[in-house]
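Now read the record:
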Amino acid sequence: GSTYSSKVFRVTFLTLAASLTVPLLGVTVLLDCPIDPQPISLKEPPLLTGVLEPNTELRKAERLWENQLVGPESIVHIGDVLFTGTADGKIVKIEGGEIQTVARIGHGPCGTREDEPTCGRPLGIRVGPNNTLFVADAYHGLYEVNPGTGETKMLVSTKTLIEGQKLSFVNDLTVTRDGRKIFFTDSSSKWQRRDYLFLIMEGTDDGRHLLEYDTVTKEVKVLMVGLRFPNGVQLSPAEDFVLVQETTMARIRRYYVSGLMKGGADMFVENMPGLPDNIRLSSSGGYWVAMSAVRPNPGFSLLDFLSEKPWIKRMIFKLLSQETVKKFVPKYSLVVELSETGSYRRSFHDPSGVTVAYVSEAHEHNGYLYLGSFQSPFICRLNLQHV
């Protein structure tokens, strides 16, 4: 009797499974997929051992101005005054604990995904030699902002054709000490910032990734193309090369801007333990790299699992929105310090994003590490003497 009933169960189960699967497959075939994912070859993620060993150092950070800021992505200081750009399109200054709006590049309303292109989204922010702010707005382009008067001056507009193409997703910038040259990234020529998840999942190398703007001649040059989601950029202390984070590939490229190697490029760090977002100088002569997501090893890395399976990515994005997919990304926060040659010096973790979540940048100032975030409603500050 038991074999008969198990056979009946099996047949019933398979019939049920088939009756559910066939319509689901039918629906999935018919549904449009917003992305055309490419297979990507990533190496097995590095083991989280030695200096990369998981810890809870980031939980020692304090949250500042909680619920008074939205997504403070990138941070700079002029003296003790802090400046950041927020998700509601503002450039704000924080002086003596008070938050004031300095400037807006776009205009309201702000707050929804639909508003973002008109509202604007200031991402990378830097201080120039005359204490003016240089800002990369994802939708509007490169701007110079006078922090005293709030006056904004457009340097490079996303509407301008550069080598026959418009900028679609201006992301980060780095400025020479004399303020003459600005190196900046355009993350994609297809996707805008609000669709960054599509950009990561599609894995295409469609942006003109590193560009140079000369503030004297007003010329824009394309220096590098064919990277997959170029993101944060940082000039070396000697200003002989620029580091470019290639987010989708979990690596950092180096482009030489002066010296014998000028115009050449090579790999600075590859196969990183997470997806690098912004990169900034550290006081030890190295670099701070913030990871927007982690590739756990040992553990399961969703990104690595999906990298060579475009058909699964298609299914996912036919059925789920970007907002829903984001919920499956673990909230693991990780910041690493690299030496001047690209080896790992130390790492700070918050394994479940308890205190610090969605880190976009680690900016060092007066013995503290200020942590920007593209999503959190606060800035975190970590005392480097206490880690």
